[in-house]
Every structure is written in structure tokens, then in C-alpha cells.
Amino acid sequence: MSVLFQKAQHVREHVSMGQLLDSYGVPLREDQLKAYKTSQIPCPIHGVDNHKSAKFFESSNSFYCWTCSKVYSPIDLVMEKEGFSFAEAVNFLLPLSKVPFVAVDEISLLNAQLEKKSCAESSFEDRIILLDQKCRWIYKNGYLLSDAIRLFELIDNVSLSHNSVHLQKLEEVVDNVQCSR
Ligand SMILES: [Zn+2]
């Protein structure tokens, strides 16, 4: 999902159509809103008329105009009113959102960084213990005893040498054995 598409979704949900309409001189009827979560409004697109040709829906944060035969989202509204392109409308509305926008890709990137950090920060001993646990799992799950013993020996050697390059290699070997199962 592109960042622009994510921003557009965010704007449709979190930029108040009620406030936008108000800023264009189309106030919502509070009594109707309270009773029905909708409000009859004059359409701000085809020319503000005295006939209440459109209806605002709180549930979808949009309005429908019977004369235009169209649903308007906050994006559609400012595209029509300001002559913006889709991207311009999205970027114009984004700062009006009450909820801060965070792109999904940025979140997963952040998570990946956090994971990397915690892995790099975990001590040599912790990693040896984890390897040992993995080897026990491998042994219990039906690997040849000789293979398991070989892995335990390697863990012992790496543990004694305190060589982090060898440790990393061994982690890869053990992970591969686990995955091949
Ligand atoms: Zn209209």
C-alpha cells in the first residue's frame, strides 16, 4: 500500500467532514445529528442552495448529494472547492487530522530496528543459552543423537573461545537445522 494511499485512508477517517463543511459555510444541524447521526445540508459543490439537497452521514464522515448523484469524502470536497489534485488534497488535509499519521512501512521499519538492537544488545552468554535450548529442542524432535552431540560440542567450543563470529555462524547453522525440520 503506497504512502499516499495510506494518507488518503487516514484523512477520510480522521479529518472531520463536519468541521470542513462548517469552514465552507455549511453548518450541520445539531438536533438532527444528535437524533439520527445525519444532517440535511445544502450541497457546497453544485452551488449552495436553499434546498437541502445533500445529507451528511457521521458514520462514513461523508455526504451524499442527490443533485450531483455523488458521495463526497473530505478529499473530494477540497478537490472540488480548491481545484486540488488528489495528492494535493490529501497533503492539504493531513495536518487537519486529530490523530497523527504514521505510515505502516515506517512502523515495520521501526520494529525491525528495535529487534536488531535487542539482538545486538543481548549478551554472549544469553545467546549461548538460547543456542543450547534450541539444540535440546532439535535433539528431542528426533534428530540423530550424533548430530545433536556434535552441535553441543560446537556450542561448548564457541562458549569457551568467546568468539562472536563463530557464535554467529553457529546460530545460523542451528537455525538452518531447525528450519529443515
Ligand atoms: Zn450537489
State the CATH superfamily name of the largest domain. Answer: Zinc finger, CHC2-typedomain
Shape: rod-shaped
Specify the structural class: alpha+beta
CATH top level assignment of the largest domain: Alpha Beta
Low-confidence stretches: none
State the CATH topology of the largest domain: DNA Primase, Chain A
Number of domains: 2
Named once each, the bound ligands are: zinc ion
Largest sheet: 4 strands, antiparallel
Tally the helices: 9
Round the Cα radius of gyration to an integer and report it: 30 Å
How much beta, percentage-wise? 5-15%
Widest sheet: strand ordering: 1-2-3-4
> What's the helical proportion of residues?
55-70%
Describe this structure in words.
The chain is α+β, with helices and mostly antiparallel strands. It folds into 2 domains: 101 residues, Zinc finger, CHC2-typedomain (DNA Primase, Chain A), CATH 3.90.580.10; 59 residues, no CATH class. 61% of the residues lie in helices and 8% in strands. The protein is built from 9 helices and 4 strands. The protein has a 4-stranded antiparallel β-sheet with strand order 1-2-3-4. A hairpin with a 4-residue loop joins strand 2 and strand 3. Bound molecules: zinc ion (ZN). The site of zinc ion (ZN) has 8 residues, from loops.
